[in-house]
Design the sequence.
C-alpha cells in the first residue's frame, strides 16, 4: 500500500505541475499529510473510509494509472467500464470513463470475445439455376 502511494504521488507530481494544475481548476483539491492531492467530495459521512470521502485525484494519461486500471480490469474478470465505480471508491481519475475505455480497448482477451463470427449466406435455389455446366 505504501509503494502504491509513492507511485501515485510521483504520477501526480509529474502530471500536476504548474501547467497541469489548470486541469484541476474545476475541482476542490487539497493536499493531505502524505503530500498526495485529494478531492474534496460532498460525502461527509464519518462511517465511511477516508479514501472514499476524499479520493486521490489521478491524471488520465500516466502509465502508472493505466497499469492500475489494467490490474483492476484483470481482478474483476475483464469487466467493462463498470470498473470506474470500483475505482471511484478510492480514486478519482480525470476523464475516467474515457481512460478506462482506452485501456479496455487494448485488452486482447476482450477484443477476442467481442469479435463476431462470419456468417456465410445460405445459397438459394434461384442462384443455382443460373449455374450450368458447360459442355465442350
Sequence:
Amino acid at each position: 500500500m505504501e509503494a502504491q502511494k509513492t507511485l501515485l504521488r510521483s504520477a501526480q507530481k509529474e502530471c500536476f505541475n504548474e501547467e497541469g494544475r489548470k486541469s484541476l481548476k474545476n475541482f476542490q483539491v487539497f493536499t493531505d499529510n502524505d503530500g498526495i492531492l485529494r478531492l474534496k467530495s460532498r460525502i461527509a459521512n464519518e462511517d465511511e473510509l477516508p479514501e472514499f470521502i476524499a479520493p486521490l485525484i489521478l491524471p488520465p494519461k500516466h502509465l502508472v494509472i493505466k497499469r492500475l486500471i489494467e490490474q483492476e480490469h484483470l481482478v474483476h474478470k475483464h469487466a467493462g467500464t463498470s470498473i470506474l465505480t470500483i475505482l471511484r471508491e478510492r480514486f478519482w481519475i480525470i476523464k475516467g470513463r474515457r481512460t478506462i475505455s482506452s485501456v479496455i480497448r487494448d485488452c486482447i482477451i476482450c477484443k477476442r470475445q467481442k469479435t463476431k463470427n462470419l456468417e456465410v449466406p445460405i445459397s438459394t435455389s434461384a442462384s443455382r439455376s443460373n449455374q450450368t455446366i458447360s459442355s465442350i
In short: Residues 66 and 103 are 7 Å apart (CA to CA). The chain has seven helices and four strands.
